[in-house]
Fold these 2 entries.
Entry 1:
Amino acid sequence: MNGQNVLSFRDFTVRYGDAPASVRGVDLTVRAGEIVGLIGESGSGKTSVAMACLGLLPKQAKVTAGRFEVCATDLAGADARKLTRMRGREVAMVFQDAMGTLDPTMRVGRQIGEVIKRHRGLKGEAQRQAVVELLRRVRVPEPESRARQYPHQLSGGLRQRAAIALALAGEPKLLLADEPTTALDVTVQAEILRLLRTIRDEFGVGILLISHDIGVIAQAADRVAVMRDGEIVEQGGVEEVLLTPSSDYTKMLLRSVPRLGRRGEHAGRPAPEDRGSDPDRPALFTAEAVGRSFRSRGRTVHAVRDVSLRVHPGEVVGVVGESGSGKSTLANLLVRLDRPSTGRLRMDGRDYARLRGKRLKAFRRAIQMVFQHPAGSLNPKLRVATSVREPLVTGGTGGSEARRRVEEVLAEVGLPADAGQRLPHEFSGGQKQRIAIARAVAARPEVVVLDEPTSALDVSVQAQVLDLLLRVQRAEKLTYVFISHDLAVVQAISDRVMVMYAGRVVEVADAEALFSAPAHWYTKALLAAVPSPDPRERGGPADTAEEDTSGDRGQGCAFAARCPKAESRCRVDVPELSEVLAGHAVACHFPAVEEGAE
């Protein structure tokens, strides 16, 4: 079967009504036993291609093609019954959101078993064994017990593995993977990409890997096709396209990718002497041994533990860590959307968790927040100018002065002159984030906390927003706390970086020192897992699934179970954050600097 085409499109075009074609003249093949990467930004037509493979385009879609075949089935002539039989048996799909793919009311094993029964006819013990074997093959640890669990009881990585097992249950010849790692932490993402390569080799399936992340494609694909505005502008071998691209668009995408080791290339980045990272300067605000705990099902869960932080005027402090590390909880505490269970938060010497009345209102003006999903933070019924004006009115600024300030900040973030009179739905994702940034800086705050502000954006838009943030920082004399799981983005913008794991700070240092010589083994693992856009720098073979670290940890270092250098002491004593070099602190009994690690 290897080498045969399982997907073959020639001159494939999709048109809706009288509108111009949304997909035009696409030539694309996927062979059994290979991974073809389909790169493109939002609106490029990637998802239309995927839906066409499943016969799931809307009824109003008009398809024309010289060839339109999946697994030797001519989709143009296939009726509804034939398409239904084909889905799952010939072609299956893995979606970005595993939680949305899996039925939350059914045990994982039962869901996979139903697909096996439908397409392979297995029942009873044979079906149960097939479920366990499939979970084992996609590297789910303890597959017998995992099969009896519900989706919410699995970590994000394990849920995605279960979703992949569900897609493979009917033994398809073509697997469509639509942004399968976008919602995952970098370490889990690396494991899933290695798993896809293993599936290609062990199952012999053809895989169409759809992503806007060039690093993901570089780490997994054999061949690459680049889409723009409904057309494929370039395709070929992964090294040919990503190392020696021929189209200007591919070159632009590659230039936009933030890369570890390339720091300070953004146009708006202030000069080093202007960035305010001198530790001897007075702090603008501080967190002193801050903790936040919650009661859940009769037990206490510690989301943030003993976090101390000093932020100086004019600097950018990056905060990184996997899901569940406490980053977003800390962000909510910093802007007083939540209050700490222990410790103190001070700004200008005042404990702002206790502020009331006018002092609280003044604090609200001084510290603002930009969220990951701008559409969720903007009122869809309010015109942009009204949304941006709100913090000004709350602070006592109105009339012509407020109008002038709104016009000023909208221009500053690069929006057209008529933007203020339009509604949020009329803007692209990148433009909505610009509106959210304008709203955050309108009242001239001192600090802006940014919680994953670029993770939902295409790579070229992400680069534009990073440049914008740095230009606005200089123009408005702002201080940033920049929270992200994307280490390359954090390196590009930050002066200092704080690494969190299981609610604790495990390392903090100047960005240059941390990224060039990390001292904590968790930081080293994060850096090693970042997908390189260079296909020659691929990770090794997959071996075991990531540990499911959900839930509260007991004594000792929370990272001990995953640490290559852990000793018995690490499982008993909690390491304190202490300096190993000037300005470089780490919470580790056996830090990398003592091992002579690079």
Entry 2:
Amino acid sequence: MKFLVLSAFTLMTGFALRAQQPYQGTVGRTLAESKEWWPASVKPPAGSPNVIWILLDDVGFGATSTFGGVISTPTFDSLANNGLRYTNFHTAAICAPTRAALMTGRNHHAVHMGGFAHYFSSAGFPGYDGRIPSSSGTIAEILKENGYNTFAVGKYGLTPDEDTSDAGPFNRWPSGKGFEHFFGFLGSATDQYKPALVEDNVNIKPDGRHLSEQITDKAISYIARQKAAAPDKPFFLYYAPAATHAPHQVATEWSDRYKGQFDDGWDAFREKVFANQKKQGIIPANAKLPERNPYIQAWNELKPDQKKLYARFMEVYAGYLTYTDYQVSRVINYLRSIQQLDNTLIFVVIGDNGASKEGTLEGVVTNGHSPRRNKTLPRDSARLFNEEHIALIGTPESDANYPLGWAQAANTPFKYWKQDANSEGGTRNPLIVYYPKGIKAKGEIRTQYGYVTDLLPTTLEFLHIPFPQQIRGIQQDSLHGTSLVYSFTDANAPSRHTEQYYYIFGSRAIYKNGWKAGAAHHPNYEDLNGFSDAGNAPAKDFDKDVWELYNLNEDFNERVNLADKYPEKLAELKRLFEQDAKKYNIYPYIDWDDVFRARLINSKKLLTAAPK
């Protein structure tokens, strides 16, 4: 009996390696003539730390106190003060592409996530079908095969809509991508009190508490159970709250902490944050603040009721962000209480893109009275509705999102915002790296260029885990990211990630050695809300998009367009972008207004044709 039990155990623990290792025992005619053999159980290198990746949602570069903002984030402050701040780190400019690139270490079009995995915003082409191939294994799959336990909580955002029922299939759920446990939601956004909640492979009912509290409870419980069962075994936790994506919902005990603090408005906010960033060394001492976006009114020109309304939107957002920081502190404090914090490598990416422009000029209290959702609603009507229902902002009854003026303020010191892949305001997000046991520098700033694909190779190099040629017998595509480990000990080391494309919904850019060329596809305000606001206008001609050129080494926040001065450099970069477009599946260029409209028409036809 003992022999049979042991055999079953070794079959389970050694399964991943059994398929890759030839049998090393001897099979004779009888047991006496045979020699037993099992593959060794998978173990990570001795002394391997736990790993946590924290990815926030829709946070601007200048929002947190950690990077010069005026919104209190003491947990992130502490991690950064005892670790490293990266100020030249980048994302893909919108959620699903960023998350796909993060998880796989490959560019988002190369892993089929040029847009989303949703029916209304995916397309049947290799770069856009929303289905990450098995040849692009995730960080969770790699660490799991190297002896780590793997957990994920919060926003996943990479599962095709048609696969999200309890019938699956589950190969594109977190459980199919290397996570042993998952608690959160599969889509791109959800209500904080009524989330579309999933646990492992089952859709479940929410319990009415704030989602951030629930995912934090679950993260702590995963760690507690794992450490009780195997104290020396490391874990990987992917902690990705819905915060601070809309709807901005948080208890008044958090939002009321900021009462009156934004009454001087978004112009004063930008100036204050800009000064803080210079003082902290986050930005160059000779930097200049870009002009206010022409679509945004000067704060001192607003009416008193408008100021009161807009200030309340920001109070709620600030409370939401501080509350998120508090929930992260619960995980940090739990690790400290079990003597695991010093043995945990933590990466914090503060936002999967720039601050969101999706709140329109007026802000949103409820979607039914949003110009974004209701095209027939005049701006004045939306504003008056918001003023009359100001008390709802942030409550479970609201779908709150702040107005555009606050998005630009939260993105200080940059121009533009989420979805603008052509702009640093859409793509530059702060990164914190914390592991005092192995990174001796504390509170230092790193300016090396980094991109979201870099976290996977950084983690593997630091853990001394080789990148696998195969995962579960499937040959793996090469990585596109570059490890940042070289910069941990050398603030002056030259950047090793020297070239990167960006492309979201037609807006596009190419970066190489400090130079950047970019073109906005929908640059006007009427297009600011992206493809989901598809109207009746024809698709915009990509060939008429205007390219700009910037030297980020001298002009990090893109104030001086050099396209006319250096046409040869612009042409060189545009050629490089075209090469990447072919290499990484960016083609075909798609105007997402047309895709959304086609899906909407098709859905209506299906509803009409459905049997009554």
